[in-house]
Amino acid sequence: MTDTTSPPTPPAGLPAAPAPRPPAAPPGGLPPLRFSFSTPSDWVQVDMSADGPAAARRFVERLVEGQPEGNRDKRREIQVAATFQGTVRKARRQGARMAAFWSVQAEGRLAGASVMVAIRPVPPGLVPKDAASPEEAHLAALERAVRHVTASGQDDGGSVIETGVVELPAGPARRVRRSQVVDALGSRHRTEVVQFFVLAPDQRQMVVITFSTPTLELAEPLAGLFDALACSLRWRP
Fold it and tell me: Tell me, which fold does domain 17-235 have in CATH?
């Protein structure tokens, strides 16, 4: 039996007040999948066409504009730029429907996080015919869909820190939290990744929400924020 828990609310002092975004389209050949997903107003939509080192550095330079040179944390700026570049490349590779980036600067130090939302097709026939209830059937179909999607390379790899099923307003979701090392801007950087795999009502498509942050000292409160933002996923008629 799979434990189902509710995600925590976001900690005080971190971005809140999500702003609605339009629903995205599914992969070709499947019926339209309408949903909405919200990010806070201070998260910036990512330009999917700009994924080079120069674009990443320009992004960071805009964030630190006006800061005295002596107050800047160059190592953290490189980490944020690498996260930006990695997010755009991954979003394009996985056919993400949207991606957004958040950053804040305090005492010359940058903290950042990103999110991307993708739609993945899953094969038919995932729902077991001998399930005791519709809820049990959906959970079983969810787990089979997650195995299919991750086997096709849509998870983020790395070392799993925790995994389990959480109950979102959109339905049960497999939540996976990982520690991962990424290569970007000529060096390797450790990031923390939280993914949510949510089976659509038609059980033929899956929404994959991927959050990441290089700001490891804020990994715990940011994981709580990611949980809260995942709750903004809603199916639309």
Answer: Jelly Rolls (2.60.120)
Q: Which residues pair with 209 in a beta bridge?
A: 117, 196
- pTM of structure: 0.74
Strand intervals (E) in 61-158: 98-106, 109-121
Region for 29 from its dihedrals, namely left if φ exceeds 0, alpha if ψ lies in -120 to 50, beta otherwise: left
Angle at CA 24, nearest 5°, toward 18 and 29?
Answer: 160
Q: How far apart are CA 146 and CA 189, in angstroms?
A: 27
HSE-CB of 196 using CA atoms within 13 angstroms: 27
Classify residue 13 as left (phi > 0), alpha (psi -120 to 50) or beta.
left
> Residue 226: what residue type?
F
Question: pLDDT digits over 178-227, tens only?
Answer: 988 876 555 677 889 999 999 998 888 889 999 988 888 888 999 999 99
Provide the CB-side half-sphere exposure for 137 (13 A, CA): 13
The SS3 of residue 210 is: strand
Label the pairing between strands 159-168 and 4-5: parallel
On the CB side of 51, how many CA atoms lie within 13 Å of its CA?
12
Triad 133, 134, 137: Cα angle to 5°: 90
| DSSP label of 10 | P
The dihedral sign for the CA sequence 24, 103, 114, 58: positive
